[in-house]
């Protein structure tokens, strides 16, 4: 395990970079896994047992859920839906409306965590290929490449290739029709200096809500990685490909949950009534394809200096689906029918046999009440028997290309550990929305492949440059670090139907300062404190909305202060951190009024963004890991967080609790190892959020691993995981509006058989 010593972290990093031992097998990686590095800000690294607490069919996001301050919810226990994924930490969130936490993979930026054109770490990394996750709560590493790191960062680290040649096959079977096939080949050492692997997985699950035609997740994923070690140069290359189709989960109100706690209001039987069938689950879809590739060159300039340069490329494409219960009437600015651009002059839900729009019978006022009031226009009872119901299949297309490079220089000069570098990225994001006619809404949602209206088509170009520098100075047992960083971000919107650049914004930061102190009290205890100015650039989504006053919108900023202590001896590791955060210039979307009483499918580019005050957060994070014996260990974490809005805005007033923030989180887990057998249990308590009740979820895992060396087999492993053992009924992550939440996953089990050849 990592020892708390005053020795320069930089020196150790350089020593690892120029040594082939840095690329040892997986066991070596686990041996250096620790609760927290000796840095001046709060940070955590997952423990090896946290990987075993999750099934391989689950998303890599789930492994950090037990760390202090963090809450992860993904719609189901297997992370089967990005739409319903929410992450909160210290009052900051990643959800459908907010992206306030940074995320990288091997230090490479993820391109944003938003639903439209973004991709979280689960799109880049299979759980079997995950080595660890580095979490910086509140104050991130100064070199972290993210435009969203207001409240902290997550760096997902992929495994290094093994020195030994092997082939691994794994099969998983689980609840809700879950199946997973995984194949990985390790080349071992090639040419005396190179190790590599390639892997492929196929994952399928069904939605846990409902039955029959109910949708689910279909995911193909591939990865390849190599490491070549030369005299003074180490070259790492990695590429990942992910192709997924997901059926979404829907959020529900408190009243809906109390009435039907195991139903998210989506249906699985086609009725032929469009007002009902707009909630047909298979019509709510997320399709995404992501390819991320990078090369990393680590050059040891001398025994005390290291230069790292990492060029990368990311391609994202996909689609989001909905099935509105009507057809629209698109017109141009002169009121003439159009198929591209313009606006909707009106919608209709029924036609005659020739396809002409019909109005409801004049004397009919009846309305369908579910899922919301239909009005007579969408009620079949208000039309003659020969009327034909019609529907649309609405596609929102997302495409994003990113090309960038990160460069980092680190050197030790006497008492000084110097770091400096930059991150540059150029990205183009295309977004368009088209409407397709459902061929026969009485039968199913099959649609005409040619759209009858493309509502909008825009391209967003962004140029990002970040530079930073930091000096860590060692004064005996005390280390002082001082750093500066600055972001320069330019975004433009090109409207293809106006054939012009219609919006642009400069989202540069001020020079942002950070500083911290680490004091080595004795061989087992260190004290730390830090201050950091964090920044989130204005996102290109703000430029989507034509009513946003860009001249009045400022980037979001946060000032983070940490004060804490770390303790470690042979059996016990403790960390305690008190923090205070001032979040300013919070950017919020103000939606236009909707006359549907439900989803406004035609919202397009209406609505606006504006700054609405900020958030104040104070809290305490505790974590403890204790080895009762070589076989038996305990882990616990506790978080108390108080996040309140400052400044009034639509939906809340100054002093109100931040929507979806949790005051109390408590985790207790234990793991037991006896020879080839392992067993673990983990319980997590999530406190109240406004009117939402608290809940406790209990998980267990067991496994058997053995070296067999019989015939073609080298080793086998059987792993069994059960989530929510007590089948607790609860509301999990929210949508950021304080009125709807996603239903928590029920009891879910999975078993995985792995064989290594």
Automatic annotation (TrEMBL):
Gene3D superfamilies: TonB-dependent receptor, beta-barrel domain, TonB-dependent receptor, plug domain
Residue span of region Disordered: 331-354
Family indicated by similarity: Belongs to the TonB-dependent receptor family.
Residues in TonB-dependent receptor-like beta-barrel domain copies: 324-725
Cellular localisation: Cell outer membrane
Taxonomy, superkingdom: Bacteria
Annotated signal peptide: 1-24
Organism name: Pseudoalteromonas marina
Residue spans of biased composition, Polar residues class: 335-346
Chief location of this protein within or outside the cell: membrane
Motif (TonB C-terminal box): 740-757
Entry keyword set: Cell outer membrane, Ion transport, Iron, Iron transport, Membrane, Receptor, Signal, TonB box, Transmembrane, Transmembrane beta strand, Transport
Domain TonB-dependent receptor plug: residue ranges: 39-145
Protein name (database record): TonB-dependent receptor
UniProt-listed SUPFAM superfamilies: Porins (SSF56935)
Membrane topology category: Multi-pass membrane protein
Spans traversing the lipid bilayer: none
């Amino acid at each position: 395990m990592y020892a708390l010593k005053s020795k320069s972290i930089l020196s150790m990093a350089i020593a690892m970079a120029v040594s082939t031992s840095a690329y040892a097998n997986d066991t070596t990686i686990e041996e250096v896994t620790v609760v927290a590095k000796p840095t001046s800000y709060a940070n955590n690294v997952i423990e090896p047992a946290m990987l075993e607490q999750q099934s391989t069919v689950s998303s890599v996001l789930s492994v950090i859920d037990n760390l202090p301050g963090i809450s992860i919810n993904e719609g189901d226990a297997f992370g089967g839906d990005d739409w319903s994924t929410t992450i909160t930490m210290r009052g900051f969130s990643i959800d459908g409306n907010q992206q306030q936490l940074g995320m990288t993979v091997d230090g490479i930026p993820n391109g944003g965590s938003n639903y439209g054109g973004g991709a979280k770490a689960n799109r880049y990394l299979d759980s079997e290929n995950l080595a660890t996750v580095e979490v910086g709560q509140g104050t991130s590493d100064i070199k972290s490449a993210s435009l969203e790191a207001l409240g902290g960062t997550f760096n997902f680290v992929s495994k290094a290739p093994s020195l030994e040649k092997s082939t691994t096959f794994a099969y998983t079977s689980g609840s809700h029709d879950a199946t997973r096939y995984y194949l990985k080949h390790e080349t071992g050492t090639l040419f005396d200096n190179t190790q590599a692997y390639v892997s492929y997985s196929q994952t399928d699950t069904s939605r846990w809500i409902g039955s029959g035609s109910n949708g689910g997740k279909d995911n193909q994923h591939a990865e390849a990685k190599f490491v070549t070690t030369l005299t003074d140069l180490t070259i790492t290359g990695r590429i990942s490909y992910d192709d997924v189709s997901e059926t979404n989960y829907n959020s529900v109100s408190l009243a809906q949950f109390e009435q039907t706690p195991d139903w998210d209001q989506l249906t699985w039987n086609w009725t032929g009534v469009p007002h009902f069938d707009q909630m047909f689950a298979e019509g709510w879809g997320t399709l995404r394809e992501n390819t991320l590739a990078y090369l990393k060159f680590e050059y040891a300039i001398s025994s005390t200096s290291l230069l790292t340069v990492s060029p990368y490329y990311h391609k994202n494409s996909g689609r989001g689906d909905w099935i509105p219960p009507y057809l629209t009437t698109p017109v141009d600015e002169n009121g003439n029918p159009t198929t591209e651009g313009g606006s909707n002059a009106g919608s209709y839900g029924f036609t005659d046999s020739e396809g002409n729009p019909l109005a409801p019978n004049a004397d009919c006022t009846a309305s369908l009440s579910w899922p919301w009031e239909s009005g007579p226009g969408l009620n079949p009872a208000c039309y003659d028997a020969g009327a034909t119901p019609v529907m649309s299949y609405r596609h929102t297309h997302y495409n994003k290309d990113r090309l960038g490079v990160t460069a980092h220089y680190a050197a030790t000069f006497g008492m000084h550990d110097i770091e400096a570098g930059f991150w540059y990225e150029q990205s183009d994001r295309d977004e368009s929305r088209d409407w397709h006619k459902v061929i026969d809404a009485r039968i199913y949602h099959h649609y005409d492949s040619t759209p009858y209206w493309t509502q909008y088509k825009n391209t967003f170009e962004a140029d990002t440059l970040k530079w930073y520098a930091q000096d860590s100075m060692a004064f005996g047992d005390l280390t002082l670090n001082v750093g500066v960083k600055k972001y320069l971000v330019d975004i433009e919107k090109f409207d293809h139907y106006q054939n012009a650049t219609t919006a642009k914004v400069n989202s540069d930061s001020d020079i942002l300062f950070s500083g911290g102190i680490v004091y080595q009290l004795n061989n087992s205890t260190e004290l730390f404190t830090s201050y950091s100015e964090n920044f989130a650039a204005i996102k290109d989504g703000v430029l989507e909305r034509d009513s946003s006053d860009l001249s009045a919108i400022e980037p979001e900023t946060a000032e983070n202060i940490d004060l804490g202590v770390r303790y470690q001896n042979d059996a016990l590791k403790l960390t305690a951190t008190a923090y205070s955060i001032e979040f300013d210039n919070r950017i919020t979307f103000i939606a236009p009024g909707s006359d549907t009483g439900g989803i406004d499918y035609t919202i397009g580019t209406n609505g606006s963004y504006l700054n609405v005050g900020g958030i104040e957060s104070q809290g305490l994070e505790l974590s403890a890991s204790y080895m009762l014996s070589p076989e038996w260990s305990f882990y616990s974490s506790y978080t108390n967080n108080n996040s309140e809005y400052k400044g009034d805005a639509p939906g809340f007033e100054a002093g109100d609790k931040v929507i979806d923030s949790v005051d109390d989180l408590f985790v207790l887990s234990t793991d037991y190892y006896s020879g080839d057998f392992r067993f673990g249990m983990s319980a997590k308590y999530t406190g109240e959020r406004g009117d939402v009740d608290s809940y406790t979820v209990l998980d267990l895992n067991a496994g058997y691993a053995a070296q067999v060396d019989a015939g073609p087999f080298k080793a086998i492993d059987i792993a069994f995981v059960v989530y929510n053992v007590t089948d607790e009924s609860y509301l999990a992550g929210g949508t950021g509006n304080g009125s709807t939440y996603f239903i928590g996953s029920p009891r879910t089990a999975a078993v995985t058989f792995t064989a290594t050849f």
